[in-house]
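Hi D.,

Good news: the full-assembly prediction came through. Inputs first.
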Amino acid sequence: MTGRMVLGITALCIAATLSSASVVDAYDFDDPALEARYRTLIAELRCPKCLNVNIAGSDAPIASDLRRAVRRMLEEGRTDQEILAHLQDRYGDFILYNPPLSPATVLLWATPAVLILVGLLVLRRLGSRRDAVELTEDERAKLDALGAEDP
Amino acid sequence: MTRARALLIVPLAVFVGIVVLLYSGFGLGRADLLPSALVDKPFPDFELPTLAGEPPRRSRDDLLGEVRLVNVWATWCPTCAAEHDELARITGETGIGIVGVNYKDDPNAARAWLAERGDPYLFHIIDAHGDLGVDLGVYGAPETFVVDAAGVIRFKQVGAVTADTWRDSIAPVVASLQAAAP
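Then the structure:
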């Protein structure tokens, strides 16, 4: 496989994960800044009924209710933090696609770092062992003898 | 030599470990049941029209004074129909007051539904657009809350109240709250 092919496949894979679902019912905001915050918030909030969809991409009635609640709170002048906290108080951490670090989520946050660390250690071991594979003439002869015994 | 051979087992062991971990996830219960974030928090404020129309509106104050069940239901919800008889039995046998939240429903259909099946509730409030539902963290019907005399939510049941869930999880909470009340 050429480097260019690998690059193309990687780009396709990334694009597939990024394809964000469209908003089912669009609200009109007078203020474009408010609309931008609205779009960010509904992309960050997880639909409680449909497990793996954000409320921006779900046409479940509850997702529509939550979008309306987000819009109402935005127009009341609440901050993004207040809106997320308001919904988190009612639906729990589940509703946040970006969950806070807490005793319940520490495994979630630590696992990638631990896996990378393990991977680096394995790489180092493999690297250092490669230097030690040279055999002396004597050893090579012994090895051949062993191979002859063992068909 | 044996050390190198032992190391060969590591990837297999890790794989088996992951399989066991993920398989045990099946036993953790239903993924569609969220933990109740609202337990031990005050029931949210509301002031909503009633299904009966008399009195025209009810507020949070009408919940206070006794341990109550608050049941979120709708005519479009088949499970609500299934649990209706059980709620009637519970209030008939224990005398606990049940408040209905008619959730995102057609009020006329709801009145006809109650006329046909009987109405064991104290009263019903109409949450036409699900705004109280969002305040309650409701994500489907039916849901049933145990609310103590001071208006604090003490338990939340997602899905139908059945004879089993009543006996095993809801009745003990109600009994301990009633015992604690003066």
